[in-house]
């Protein structure tokens, strides 16, 4: 269960970053998405 909570934190950070910047969304989104997938893996 603790691992699921950590994964949720990563997802929340990704959403915040997306809302933060528009130009960095495309570049940052890819990096953030990779981190989320690695955490789940």
From TrEMBL:
It comes from the Bacteria. This is Uncharacterized protein. It comes from Anaerococcus hydrogenalis DSM 7454.
């Amino acid at each position: 269960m603790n691992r699921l909570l950590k994964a949720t934190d990563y997802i929340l950070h990704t959403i915040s970053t997306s809302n933060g910047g528009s130009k960095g969304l495309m570049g940052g989104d890819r990096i953030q998405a990779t981190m989320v997938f690695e955490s789940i893996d």
